[in-house]
Design brief:
The complex is a heterodimer of chains A (102) and B (167). Chain A is an all-alpha fold and 102 residues long. Chain A is built from three helices and no strands. Chain A has a domain of 64 residues: Orthogonal Bundle (Helix Hairpins), CATH 1.10.287. Chain A is 76% helix and 0% strand. Classes of the chains: A mainly alpha (102), B mainly alpha (167).
């Protein structure tokens, strides 16, 4: 889209990534932390698509599809960990998991 | 179409801000769905309709369904009041209404031909199953590994024997 300044698309990706990053650092709930990681991955995918539109190549969209598959795999494992976390520690607070035990 | 981009960008930023600030888990996840819809509109205005559709189907559909499913499994909101106050709907409804108005505007009032740099599903598919076919295979293996890993991690202790292996 020639009318949309692609700089602004990258700025939007940066803003979304920053919000997700701030949320990941701030929130202590495991599910919200996973959602913040999703926001950051989505922002990275947005940057890929903007770059693909800049050069008129399909590669950016292909990379977004790979980011999408990776996000799906990550969230499946992450939510399984959340279920174990809840059963073991009776909580979803990531600060509860400050001890490692084999 | 430029206006659509900026409106959707503002909606995405506002909805994402709500995701990271809400105390109610389900509210945060619903705001995340709105954020993903807004980013889908951004993809559409950037000339990537295939990715916009996938954003709605896979991200907002499948991945967010996984999130809500996990929230229900974990019974996170067991002690939360079930009745949703009318005030809680105000924010999501306004943001979703702005997005809906954009879609209607795009469908009815504007020329559906977006731009010369639009990259359609055909070009993406040719790249996906041409030079990137190895990546597609690797993505399928990654998803299979995630499926097996998620089942192993989430299995209850009764499903394993003394060595921790699956029974």
């Amino acid at each position: 889209m020639a009318a949309v300044s692609l700089d602004h698309g990258l700025v939007l990706a940066a803003i979304l990534f920053a919000i997700g990053f701030a949320g990941l650092l701030t929130r202590r709930n495991l599910i919200v932390a996973l959602a913040c990681i999703e926001i950051m991955l989505n922002a990275a995918g947005l940057a890929f698509v903007v770059a693909g539109a800049r050069w008129g190549q399909a590669d950016g969209q292909v990379m977004f599809l790979f980011v999408l598959a990776m996000a799906a795999a990550e969230v499946a494992v992450g939510l399984a960990i959340a279920i174990r976390f809840r059963e073991t520690l009776k909580s979803l607070d990531v600060d509860e998991a400050d001890e490692m035990k084999g | 179409m430029t206006a659509l981009f900026y409106i959707a960008a503002v909606v995405a930023v506002l909805a994402t801000l709500m995701v990271v600030t809400r105390s109610n888990l389900v509210h945060a996840l619903v705001y995340l769905v709105i954020s993903l819809f807004a980013v889908a509109v951004v993809f559409y205005t950037l000339g990537a309709p295939f990715v916009a559709a996938l954003e709605v189907i896979v991200y907002a559909g499948a991945i967010m369904m996984l999130f809500l499913f996990a929230v229900m499994l974990l019974n996170v909101s067991a002690d939360a009041p079930l009745r949703v106050p009318l005030r809680a709907w105000l924010g999501p409804v306004i943001l979703a209404a702005v997005l809906l108005a954009e879609v209607v505007y795009g469908l009815v009032l504007t020329n559906p031909r977006l731009s010369g740099t639009e990259i359609g599903p055909e070009a993406v598919s040719e790249a996906l199953y041409g030079p990137y076919v190895l990546g597609v295979e690797l993505a399928s293996m990654l998803l299979l590994a995630a499926l097996i890993g998620a089942r192993h991690v989430a299995a209850r202790d009764g499903d394993r024997d003394a060595d921790g292996d699956e029974a």
